[in-house]
């Protein structure tokens, strides 16, 4: 009985998140109706309150899901690179480029910060930070990066990618801002290289 109840709650959470994700992407957080999205999920407002507390809590769950997907996608792209350094650059650039995705742009980069506050404090950002820190540690151990603090380097790199994505999402012409943001990110990251002659090869 308890197992079935837990499964039902998890199913309800998933249905509410899916319905909210669609509503927030199409209408934006402010315009999305709780009655409409709960009806879309085939549930009641009571189920929403029980699972997420309120509309803000539901947004936090949606942002967490999408942000985790973004980090996973970026890490997959980075893993296909020829080495850790190229992977680090590819991962950061991939995260920045996701700012052009309408769903990411509206939910994670525009409504998310406006409603939930500083993205660097979101739980979903922590796993991405730790992955970048581990990469930085390897590159420092290999002598490719300057012997700086790995966590500090990871925070600065992740912060640069995140803020570049936020800038693109809020700009009047996101496609125009994208290449400039990626170029600046690559230049900033290259400042961590131990030797000027180890500048990354363009891909």
Can you give a write-up of this model?
The chain is mainly alpha-helical and 203 residues long. It has nine helices and no strands. Helix 1 crosses helix 4 (55-79) and helix 4 (55-79) packs antiparallel against helix 5 (84-97). It is elongated, with a radius of gyration of 19 Å.
**Please, how many helices?**
9
Query: Which structural category do the helix and sheet elements fall into?
Result: mainly alpha
Helical content class:
over 70%
* Radius of gyration, CA atoms, in whole angstroms: 19 Å
| Strand residues, percent | under 5%
Please give the number of β-strands: 0
Can you give the mean pLDDT? Answer: 90
| Molecular shape | elongated
As residue ranges, the low-confidence spans are: none
* Terminal Cα span: 55 Å
What does the main sheet amount to?
A: none
N-to-C SSE string, H for helix and E for strand: HHHHHHHHH
């Amino acid at each position: 009985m308890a197992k079935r109840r837990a499964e039902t709650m998890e199913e309800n959470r998933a249905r509410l998140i899916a319905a909210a994700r669609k509503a927030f992407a199409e209408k934006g957080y402010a315009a999305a109706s709780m009655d409409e999205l709960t009806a879309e999920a085939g549930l009641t407002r009571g189920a929403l309150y029980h699972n997420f507390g309120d509309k803000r809590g539901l947004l936090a769950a949606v942002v967490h899901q999408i942000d985790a997907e973004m980090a996973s996608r970026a890490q997959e792209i980075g893993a296909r690179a020829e080495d850790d350094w190229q992977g680090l650059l590819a991962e950061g650039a991939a995260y920045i480029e996701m700012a052009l995705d309408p769903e990411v742009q509206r939910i994670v980069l525009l409504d998310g910060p406006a409603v939930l506050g500083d993205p660097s404090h979101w739980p979903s950002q922590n796993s991405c930070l730790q992955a970048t820190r581990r990469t930085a540690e390897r590159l420092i151990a290999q002598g490719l990066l300057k012997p700086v603090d790995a966590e500090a380097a990871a925070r600065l790199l992740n912060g640069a990618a995140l803020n570049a994505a936020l800038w693109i999402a809020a700009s009047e012409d996101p496609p125009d801002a994208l290449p400039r943001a990626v170029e600046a990110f690559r230049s900033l990251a290259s400042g961590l290289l131990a030797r000027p002659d180890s500048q990354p090869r363009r891909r």
